[in-house]
Amino acid sequence: MNWRDLLVSPDTPILNTLEIIDRNARQIALVADENDKLLGTVTDGDIRRGLLKGRDLQDPISMIMNPYPTVSSPYDTRENILALMKIKQIHQIPIVDEDGKIVHVEMLNDLLSPDKKDNWVVLMAGGLGTRLYPLTHDCPKPLLKVGNRPLLETIMQSFIDQGFHKFYISVKYKAEMIQEYFGDGSRWNVTIQYLVEKESLGTAGALSLLPERPNEPFFVMNGDLLTKVNFDHLLDFHKTYQAQATMCVREYDHQIPYGVVTLDKQRLVSMEEKPIQRFFVNAGIYVLNPDVLEKIPHNQFFDMPSLFDLLMKEEGQTIAFPIREYWLDIGRMADFERANIEFAEVFG
């Protein structure tokens, strides 16, 4: 069920709200303004308590709603949301953005047994892994073991745990090793097909090898990342803002190792000792609408930044999803060593 089916305005009669709650399987109504900003929540229990206090069924729902509901952020992990549900002893949590706008509703049953989702997942695993040589001399980087299993398997398992089941893996360097290990996906009860690059096509160019066009927004993710991103929230974020393309971004801090001065010609205006500069960097995870595939040249090198540049020039709806959860790009030997140290704590 779409969370929009749970929306009521603050002046909706209690009776109408009760009918909405009875109709939906989530047993909750969301009271929101015209911009989908959450004002409160209503459950069957809230209505019963209101009636016991003498409220009439034609009274506006704002008179009995809970104006201070427990909410969560799109950037919270599945584990954090489950822990919050346990502490608060609740079965539903609205997910709201920084402005209080609703983007999703999490249900306890869905988190414990996620619904099957038909959105495709494309994993980019064709790189040479040059910076991890000699580890990648005889093994492609996606098959390097982090913790007790290959890196790409951990990525795929994160999607599987959230209900996704249709995968495409882009391969080139030592492609046969990746294909042999993952096969058709039946070992994980999912389907896997391969996009075999004869020449390096870049992070977007490989999408031109897809055998057909998907019907729903789909994920693209680099095959050398470890993250605890909630992909369900990412997908809802993409849909809520009616995006054509969503890029996950990560805040990156860079400290300048010197005192930085500001000059007005020869006059010293100010000085700041070893300032920290903050940037958002591309995190290598994307959600794209199917029509974006029309922008990608067939069987030619084309990277994802070039695709986003093109969409922005055409004034398409391109948005950013900040990652607050654990995220590590395993591009250097130091990153690989760090990943093995942190794996057990982060991924269990």
Automatic annotation (TrEMBL):
The keyword Hydrolase does not apply. Coiled coil: none annotated. This is CBS domain-containing protein. Residues 1-57, 65-121 form the CBS domain. It holds the Pfam family CBS. Keywords: CBS domain.
